[in-house]
Specification:
- The protein is α+β, with helices and mostly antiparallel strands and about 130 residues long.
- The protein has one domain.
- The chain contains three helices and ten strands; from the N terminus they run αβββββαβββββα.
- Strands 1-2-3-4-5-9-10 form a seven-stranded antiparallel β-sheet.
- The longest helix is centred in the middle third of the chain and has 10 residues.
- The chain is globular.
Length: about 130
């Protein structure tokens, strides 16, 4: 999900203060928790923030719950990427070049598809290193 999709979905919310349901126990929020991160939208699963949506990309987290459902919700929000698990370790595949990266809680994927360990690393221009999975 990108910023524009989130904006369009929030426009259809009955009550923005209660968020927009987008799945079972999953909601899209506008200015959720006002964290000061610059994220305009957030997605929560069971009240745990798993995606922050910025104009230039998204920040992803398992929020301490490395479950099948969390992985499924993250995959629903990722364009051209997907999270998978091998030997209890989570990885992200970028889909088109078949590059694999270890999933890092708080990782950022920019609009051009580049992976970063965090929003701070994105601002510094330091992309993640590929791993062999």
């Amino acid at each position: 999900m990108n910023w524009y999709t989130a904006q369009a979905l929030m426009a259809t919310a009955k009550d923005r203060s209660k968020g927009k349901p987008i799945g079972n126990n999953t909601r899209l929020w506008e200015n959720y928790r006002k964290t000061g991160t610059g994220a305009k939208y957030s997605i929560t699963l069971h009240g745990n923030e798993i995606v922050r949506i910025y104009r230039d990309g998204n920040e992803y987290s398992h929020a301490g719950w490395q479950t099948r459902t969390t992985k499924e919700r993250l995959n629903n929000c990722m364009a051209n990427h997907y999270v998978y698990q091998r030997n209890w370790v989570w990885y992200v595949n970028n889909g088109w070049e078949n590059d694999h990266y270890e999933f890092v809680n708080g990782m950022f994927i920019s609009r051009d598809g580049t992976l970063y360990e965090s929003v701070e690393q994105y601002k510094r221009g330091n992309p993640m290193m590929k791993v062999i999975a």
